[in-house]
């Protein structure tokens, strides 16, 4: 079995919400992973090695599970709210899937193969400086040296990058939740669920899981929906988003949908809500597409996510549309909203 097939098989078993017999042999490795992760976090909290503080507050948007959970739309929502409130944010990211070394600046025309798909999407949609690098501290320092006007950093992922001190942490779960609640490699968790008690907020991009929500204790929790109504031509999306259509104009046509995100079913469900009938083609998260991967749609119309569009635009040969989405955040009635919760942390400037 190819490496991608093995990873896909593991991921499916992780999210069956129980420890299947096929995962039992991995439990000793899971216990070892948990011990090492705990030791590493404990050393940083004790100051050995020293975590480093940037001269501006840092907001980390991350997750406890492996793979995408909807962090990118939340980062875009947060950046927009910060700009509206008078802040001048910048974004740093790991650049997963990119082949470049060191710290790189991400521009609208940067090849996704160099910096990764999500940072390129953030650069095109966010309208703020975006820098990527395995070392988040170095990425933040380089960003601030190039853009001294920035007064807050938003880190796309990096919850476990403890060397970077942060002012507030936001953890995102999608509809798959915490899976079987086991640590890697027997489950999808990078850290135990008790880690949630120390974060600034938990955001649910899908159905809440009561036991996971309870594990967060008094941590504020919010719900997120991703809304998209109009499709944009993939070729235009790479430029100025000029040509668009609604779902009604696509109904009755032969449609194919692809999604290379953490949970492809999330995108397919969104298309179904819009009343579309299509043939679904899921791919692995961060998949590097080739023209051959898209050949199945030669006799119809291809639909995809924004994350896929940044990679597929140069190789699409037929009619193809992307569905841009916006995050909508809601919280408990009468309680403070997510942005108000974040602002309170920024104004207090406490660091984790």
In short:
With 352 residues, the protein is α/β, with parallel strands linked by helices. It is built from eleven helices and 15 strands.
Tally of helical segments: 11
Question: What is the level-2 CATH architecture name of the domain at 46-87 and 151-224 and 330-348?
Answer: 3-Layer(aba) Sandwich
Topology as a string of helices (H) and strands (E): HHEHEEHHEHEEEHEEHEEHEEHEEH
Q: How is the CATH topology of the domain at 46-87 and 151-224 and 330-348 named?
A: Rossmann fold
Could you tell me the mean pLDDT? Answer: 92
Q: Based on helices, strands and strand pairing, what is the structural class?
A: alpha/beta
Helix content class: 25-40%
Coarse morphology: globular
Describe the structure.
The protein is of the alpha/beta class and 352 residues long. Among the domains are: 46-87 and 151-224 and 330-348, Rossmann fold (3-Layer(aba) Sandwich); 229-324, no CATH class. Helix content is 31%, strand content 19%. The chain has 11 helices and 15 strands. A 9-stranded mixed beta sheet has the order 3-4-2-5-1-6-7-8-15, with helices on both faces. Helix 9 (264-273) links the parallel strand 11 (255-259) and strand 12 (279-282). Helix 3 (71-84) packs parallel to helix 5 (117-126) and helix 5 packs across helix 10. It is globular. The mean pLDDT is 92. This is Tetraacyldisaccharide 4'-kinase. InterPro entries: LpxK, P-loop_NTPase.
How are the SSEs placed, and which strands pair?
Layout: H1 3-14, H2 27-46, E1 58-62, H3 71-84, E2 89-93, E3 104-105, H4 112-115, H5 117-126, E4 130-132, H6 136-146, E5 152-156, E6 168-174, E7 201-205, H7 210-215, E8 221-227, E9 230-233, H8 234-237, E10 244-246, E11 255-259, H9 264-273, E12 279-282, E13 301-304, H10 306-312, E14 320-322, E15 326-330, H11 338-348
Parallel strand pairs: 1-5, 1-6, 2-4, 2-5, 6-7, 7-8, 11-12, 11-13, 13-14
Antiparallel strand pairs: 3-4, 8-15, 9-10, 9-14
Helix pairs in contact: 3-5, 5-10
Binding site for ATP: 65-72
GO cellular component, one term: plasma membrane
Protein name: Tetraacyldisaccharide 4'-kinase
